[in-house]
Amino acid sequence: MHQITNSDLLTFMVSKQEPALAVNNPATGELLGYAPILQHQQIEAAVERAHQAQQAWAKLPAKSRSQLLNKWYHLLLDNQDDLARLMTLEQGKPLAEAKGEVLYGASFVEWFAEEGKRTYGESIPAPSGDKRIVTIKQPVGVASAITPWNFPIAMITRKAAPALAAGCSFIVKPAELTPLSAFAVAELAYQAGIPRDVLQVVLGEDAAQVGAIFTSHPLIRKLSFTGSTRVGRILMEQSAHDIKRTSMELGGNAPFIVFDDADIDAAVQGAIASKFRNAGQTCVCANRFYVHSSVYDEFIEKFAAQVEQLNVGNGLEEGVNVGPVISQTARDNILALVERALEQGAEVATKRIEHDGLFVAPVVLKNVCHDMEIVSQEIFGPVAPVIAFDSDEQLIEMANDTIYGLASYFYSQNIARVWNVAEALEYGMVGINEGIISTEVAPFGGVKQSGIGREGAKQGIDEYMNIKYLCFGGL
C-alpha cells in the first residue's frame, strides 16, 4: 500500500498563502507553518460542491464506501508516526499519547467501514392484510462539523467516518490552533480514493463566520459540534431556524469518586490516567475528586506521590508525561483557579513547581470544599481538587450538583453500591473501577448541558441517517 512520507505530509505547511493562518508549537513557540483560510464565498462554494458530490456518493453501494474507508484506515495506520509527530508539534501532547490518538481515531474509520454495511431497515406487521410496512435508512445529505484542538485527529474521524459510511458528504472546520492534523488526515482520505468534494476541510476568517454558514446554509442538513457548552448553545439556536439536525458534545465536570471499600492503589492509577492525559485538557477527564473521609488521607498521600513522578516538558522529549497547555489564556485561567482555591482554604498536596512558557505543573489540592469555584468550573488543566465525603447520599447529591452530565468515574468493590451509584449518577457515561472509558465500540455522549446525540458504536451512524417509512397498499 502506498505510504506518504513525512515530507509529503508537511508539504502544505511550507509556504504561506494569502490569506493564511499561522500555526505555532505550544511547547516552543516556534512557527510550524500556515494553513489556508477561505473567504465566505469560497466556503459556500465548498458546500455546493459537497452537495453535488453527495448525490453520487450516496448511490455507491455501501460495500464500495466501506472498501474506501478501509483503505483510509490502513493509510492512517501506515502513517501513525508521522501523524503523531505532527500532532505533538501543533497540539503539544506527549508523542506516546499522540500515537495513541492516531490509533483511536483510526479505530472509528475501521468500525464505521463495517457499520455502513449494516444500516438495516425493518419489516413491520401491518394492521391489515392488504398493506405492507417497511422502513429504510437514508443519508441526511451534507453533514458539517466543528471540531476542537484537544483531539485534532480523533474528533474528526469520529464524525467523518460515520457520515461517509452513511452516504453523506462531510465538511469540517477544525480548530484554528490545530488545523494541520486535519489537512493531513484528509490528504490520506484522498489517497484512499475518497473524492475531495465528499470530504473537505475549511477554515474561515473567524470561527463564528464558519459556524454561521454551517447553521444557516440550506444545503447543510446536519451539524456535529464538539466544544464548549456556551458555543453549543449558540450553534443550536442558529440551527433552530432551519430545524437542522445537530449533535452536541459539550462541556463536562466529571466527578471521580473513591468509596471506602475501593482498591485505593487501583483508584490512584485510574485517577492518574483520567486526570492528567493530555495535560488535563479533555472533556471527559476527572475534574473533581470525591474521596470517602475514612480513606481520604491514604488516597491523598498515594495520589500526590504518583503525581510528583510525572514529567512536564516538550511532548517530543523522551519520558515526558505532561506537555504544555494550549495557550497563554488557558494557562492563566488554570493558575487563577488554583490561586482562588488556595485563598478559599485549599492546600497544595504536591510540590509547587513553576514552569516557563505554557507548561503547568500537575497539582493535587486537598481540603477542598464542594462549594469552591474550582469544583464548579471545568478546569481543563492538570489540577486535581480533592473533596471528602461521609455518606453515599451526600456523595450523589454533590456529584450531580452540576449543569453538566458527560462522564463520571467511581471505585468500589461492593456490587450493590456499584449498581445503585451507577444508576443514580446523572451522566451519559460512567467508568466503574476504570479511568479510561473512550472506545469506538461504545456510545460516547452526555446528558443535561453536556450535549445531545452519541458518537461511536452502532448509534453513531444513526446520527447521519433518516428513517423513511414506506407503506404499500392495495396488495
From TrEMBL:
<keyword id="KW-0560">Oxidoreductase</keyword>
<dbReference type="Pfam" id="PF00171">
    <property type="entry name" value="Aldedh"/>
</dbReference>
<dbReference type="GO" id="GO:0004777">
    <property type="term" value="F:succinate-semialdehyde dehydrogenase (NAD+) activity"/>
</dbReference>
<comment type="similarity">
    <text>Belongs to the aldehyde dehydrogenase family.</text>
</comment>
<dbReference type="InterPro" id="IPR010102">
    <property type="entry name" value="Succ_semiAld_DH"/>
</dbReference>
<dbReference type="InterPro" id="IPR016163">
    <property type="entry name" value="Ald_DH_C"/>
</dbReference>
<dbReference type="InterPro" id="IPR050740">
    <property type="entry name" value="Aldehyde_DH_Superfamily"/>
</dbReference>
<dbReference type="InterPro" id="IPR029510">
    <property type="entry name" value="Ald_DH_CS_GLU"/>
</dbReference>
<dbReference type="InterPro" id="IPR015590">
    <property type="entry name" value="Aldehyde_DH_dom"/>
</dbReference>
<dbReference type="InterPro" id="IPR016160">
    <property type="entry name" value="Ald_DH_CS_CYS"/>
</dbReference>
<dbReference type="GO" id="GO:0009450">
    <property type="term" value="P:gamma-aminobutyric acid catabolic process"/>
</dbReference>
<feature type="domain" description="Aldehyde dehydrogenase">
    <location>
        <begin position="16"/>
        <end position="469"/>
    </location>
</feature>
<dbReference type="InterPro" id="IPR016162">
    <property type="entry name" value="Ald_DH_N"/>
</dbReference>
<feature type="active site">
    <location>
        <position position="249"/>
    </location>
</feature>
<dbReference type="InterPro" id="IPR016161">
    <property type="entry name" value="Ald_DH/histidinol_DH"/>
</dbReference>
<protein>
    <submittedName>
        <fullName>Succinate-semialdehyde dehydrogenase</fullName>
        <ecNumber>1.2.1.16</ecNumber>
    </submittedName>
</protein>
